[in-house]
Structure formats: structure tokens, C-alpha cells
Amino acid sequence: MRRFLRADAFPERAPAPRKRSILDAYEPCLRQRWKEDCHNSLQLWREIRAQGFPGAASLLRKFVARWRSAPGRRGPASRSPRGGSGAGPIPPAPFSVPSPRQARWLLLRDLDKLRLEERMDREILLDGDPEIAAARTLAVDFGRLVRERDGSALAPWMKRASESVFPEFRAFVTVLDRDRAAVDAALALAWSNGQTEGQINRLKVAKRQMYGRGSLALLKARLLSAA
């Protein structure tokens, strides 16, 4: 406190030393490739992975993100959308680890509905962890056989899922096998219980709107009047 009170100006803090990274051993090679205009972090990651780098692609992408905004980077400057001189190229945002919900959306959405950067993020996830790629394949294949009502593909899919390393898929197969007759009928027949489930949902909505305080007669009157 005395040092702050006696100072003529605000004493700036010394910058904290950079922490060591497993990428330090590969930095000379990365800088050389960067000077050769290879600024694709995914390509750089593939090259150092062949040299024995054990980390994920997201780690490398964060590592080289500071180089993208460094002064003196070669390459054409981006033009201002209004025709002005602009302030130079805007560095792309570094890869951030998505939440489970974001990752599920990123992995299962159709490829043609993803932006370019989202496609790159998906490729990083799939290349960085073989288990993610295997789980996505199982999920996509099951969705396809349900949409196409391909009952002949169900048994092979259940066998693959039951032999996988994922406990969630193995538990799901157990549930499917427990009610196998209904599952086969759902894939083979055109009928469903959608109408019943819709009416039950309408009943629950009306009941919750009354906070559970309305009588059965009032609930019946509301449902019949809405019908």
C-alpha cells in the first residue's frame, strides 16, 4: 500500500511469464511453416502430430492465434465493406471447446447447413478424438435407419452399438431389445400413437396453467371447450 501511495504514477504490473507448453518443442518448426505462409492450424497440427505431438488440434489453434494478430503478417489486407481503407485483416477467432450441447449440434447437423468455420470445428473434433467420430457414426446411422424406416438395418446397428465402448449406446440397445416387437412395428407400420401423445400433452398444458388447483370438472370444461 505504501508503494502505491508514494508512486508518482500508477505502477504498472510486470507481465506474467508465459507458462511452458507441450508445443514449445515444436515452435521452431511451426514458425518456419508459418513463414512459408502455411497459416492453416489444422494442417500444422497434422504435420506435428506425425512428428509425435500428443495434444489436440484445439491446443495448437490457440497457440498460433497470437501469431495471426501479430504485426507484419504477410497477406492481402481485407477491404472495408464500405469501400474505406479499413484497419487491416481481422484475425479469426481461436477454437474454443464447445459445450456438450453445442458439440452435439455441431456433430449431428447436416454438413451443407454448417458455415465454413463450423465445418472446420467439426473436423477438429472428429480428427482429435476417434471415440467422438465413432459415437457420431453410430448416432447418424441410427437416425438414418429410423427416418428411412429401414428395419433390416436395425439388428446390425444394435450389434455394433452393443459391442462399442460407449455405455450409453449399450444401455440404449438394452432398452430397444426389451421392447423389440414395438420397435420393429414402428419401423414397419404406418400407424403411431402420435395422436394419443398429443392429447396427453394438451391435457398437461391445461393442468399446469391452473397450477394444479383446478377441479376435475373445470379441467374437463376447458378441454371440451378448446376442442
From TrEMBL:
Residues 70-97 are annotated as: Disordered. InterPro entries: Transpos_ISL3 (IPR047951), Transposase_DDE (IPR002560). PANTHER family: TRANSPOSASE FOR INSERTION SEQUENCE ELEMENT IS1557. This is Transposase. Residues 70-82 have a biased composition (Low complexity). Residues 101-222 form the Transposase IS204/IS1001/IS1096/IS1165 DDE domain.
